[in-house]
Design goal:
seven-stranded antiparallel β-sheet; alpha/beta; elongated; 625 residues; six-stranded parallel β-sheet
Length: 625
């Protein structure tokens, strides 16, 4: 039986120190809750403290007890009512309260039941049968001691693992009581103090109902077993949470967070073979490989997790010199939808190995990746900033120079909204050569594409390139909103494309636009060797804005320039986008493999390859139990 106390903020004694004694004693004796409530249930007492102020004050005077304030759903108030609470202000107040006293606020009165003042033990026991804490109005320390003694004496009572405040924030449709024991110690619910550190990703705000954080393949299998019992909920798989697509968080669903699985070890120095966990970041990988004189190409930012990038492609700053990240993958260990564990390589489950390299999020959870690293010494790392009034010409000039550059040179083009008819654009690049004279020679043609406003060129190990990424600590990623991104592959950067892209940018509705140079070693791999078929592309294009309809209206007129799209940077989940990502023969093969390894489509909340696209629904009964 859980018991708590109710305090009246209109009581003059609230300011006389008596509340400190009562709330502190309730906290010390292990009662479940202190509720701040007026006798008539109104939100605004006639005198004394308002409930919000009282609750905040009590939180500062106690250590761990939950604080209850009845906060009903608020309609939009009349602008003429200066005293009416505004929902946005109340939401900010709750956020501030959580910063002061994490995981202790309860704002839904249905989370507790109120007993009459002085209720007997029998009355309290009867009310407790509703499965909610029972709160009793108190006037003295004797009242609190009586309730504490009754709670202690309640036979057969098992103290809850989480506070009432935490349990009150649980989301519907999740059987929290059935979380596997192997995962319970590290699981995070919406009411837990660490929730803000796992709810969002780098660019996107989220509010999952439960985050499971396995540390071993067996625990991943347990997490997927839990997910199979909750197929009515969204399911996100997260390595580090940087992904632009934002699919590793959700609202009200499940997230399997792999950041604890971040080991890095050298398996075979002679072959430069390394084994890396999905939760490691590429910054950590670059630092671990540096003492050996090795590197693995890995996008352009060290905070990206290994798991997501290693199953989608990996178009990075070493791409033209060394190929895609997936081109260095030699084996992957996976937990499949049914919980079984497999190893996929050229010799073991070769069909699965083919699919994982380009469409891996559809087939299982990667728990370890074996890569063959490249010998990479000092490189030239360039960050150049330009100004121009003719973004189309700058883009076209960049496209020509980047395509003609030797394969040791990979440069990305980044711009956004114009300001007073002028654009700033940045070129980020690597020259895979330690000789300063060669680096200058390679970069000089790029420096002539616009008015050079700022430059930084350094000779550094690849570790130095990745080291600029911020470390993600316990506070986690702090993305917010719902950014919209569109992605495509460009066979050639023509003057016509540059003009159309400039028209898109002139609208001011796209705040981020990037061209990633491809070619070189990326094109050396035959298109059919992996599920990444767009090997002949010259560039990968990304545009980001706000609102799907707005971005679609700007992006769709450019589609005739494109051939395919890159999964990692695409937020459009419409099924027809699959046909942009994969040619028919590739998509058909992927569907066949999907039917073999995930017939129930458990891994569906990503860029989903539906195993049965012609069926109206896919029965959850097809999932192994």
């Amino acid at each position: 039986m859980e018991l708590g106390i109710a305090l009246d903020p209109s009581d003059p004694g609230a300011l006389a120190g008596r509340w400190d004694e009562l709330a502190g004693l309730a906290d010390e004796r292990g009662l479940a809750l202190v509720v701040v409530a007026t006798p008539d249930g109104s939100a605004r007492p006639a005198a004394g403290l308002d409930p919000w102020t009282a609750a905040t004050w009590l939180a500062g005077r106690t250590r761990g007890i939950s604080i209850g304030v009845d906060l009903p759903d608020l309609p939009a108030p009349s602008p003429k009512d200066a005293a009416a609470p505004w929902p946005t202000v109340v939401a900010k107040a709750k956020e501030s309260f959580d910063a002061l006293a994490p995981g202790r606020l309860v704002t839904d009165a249905s989370a507790w039941v109120t007993a009459p003042r002085g209720a007997s033990a029998e009355e309290l026991s009867t009310l407790a049968e509703q499965g909610r804490p029972v709160v009793v109005p108190v006037d003295s320390a004797r009242d609190v001691q009586r309730l504490a003694a009754l709670a202690d004496a309640a036979s057969g009572t098992v103290p809850p693992q989480r506070s009432l405040a935490a349990r009150s924030r649980r989301r519907p449709g999740i059987d929290y009581a059935s979380v596997p024991k192997s995962l319970a110690a590290h699981a995070i619910e919406p009411g837990d103090p660490g929730y803000d550190g796992v709810r969002s990703t780098y660019l996107r705000g989220g509010s999952p109902g439960l985050v499971l954080r396995p540390g071993t393949p067996d625990e991943v299998a347990d997490a997927l077993g839990f997910a199979r019992r909750h197929t009515h909920l969204p399911l996100g798989i997260r390595s580090a949470g940087h992904g632009i697509s934002g699919r590793s968080t959700n609202k009200g669903g499940l997230v399997v967070d792999l950041r604890r699985m971040n080991g890095i070890e050298v398996l075979d120095p002679a072959r430069r073979l390394v084994r890396i966990g999905p939760g490691a970041t590429w910054k950590q990988v670059a630092a671990a490989l540096h003492p050996h004189g090795w590197a693995l190409g890995s996008g352009d930012y060290g905070g990206v997790g290994v798991g997501g990038l290693a199953t989608a492609g990996g178009i990075g700053l070493l791409g033209r010199a060394h190929g895609l990240t997936i081109d260095h993958l030699r084996a992957v260990e996976l937990v499949l939808a049914d919980g079984s564990k497999v190893r996929a390589s050229a010799d073991e489950h070769p069909d699965l190995f083919w699919a994982v390299r380009g469409a891996g999020a559809n087939f299982g959870v990667g728990t370890a990746f074996e890569f063959q690293a490249d010998p990479v010494g000092q490189v030239g790392h360039a960050h150049l900033t330009f100004l121009t009034t003719d973004i189309a010409k700058a883009m076209a000039d960049f496209g020509r120079v980047a395509s003609e550059a030797p394969r040791d040179t990979t440069v990305f083009f980044i711009t956004g909204r114009p300001r007073q008819g002028q654009w700033s654009y940045q070129l980020l690049g690597i020259v895979d050569n330690p000789d300063p004279d060669v680096i200058v020679e390679r970069l000089t043609p790029f420096a002539q594409t616009g008015l050079l406003a700022q430059q930084q060129v350094v000779v550094t190990p690849y570790m130095g390139v990745m080291a600029s990424a911020a470390d993600v600590g316990p506070e986690g990623q702090r993305g917010f909103g719902d950014p919209v991104s569109r992605s495509a592959f460009l066979p050639k950067l023509t003057p016509e494309f540059a003009q159309d892209a400039a028209a898109l940018l002139r609208t001011g509705k796209v705040y981020f636009f990037e061209l990633r140079a491809m070619g070189g070693a990326i094109a050396d791999v035959p298109a059919g060797d992996t599920a990444f078929p767009h090997r002949a592309s010259a560039f990968q294009v990304t545009a980001m804005g706000a609102g799907h309809d707005t971005v679609n209206g700007l992006w769709d007129p450019l589609r005739h320039h494109f051939d395919g799209l890159y999964l990692s940077f695409e937020t459009d989940r419409r099924p027809e986008r699959l046909h942009d990502a994969f040619p028919p023969t590739v998509l058909n093969r992927l569907r066949e493999i999907k039917r073999r390894y995930d017939p129930g489509n458990l891994f569906r909340d990503n860029f989903n390859i539906d195993p049965y696209p012609d069926a109206r629904t896919t029965s959850a009964d097809a999932l192994p139990s």
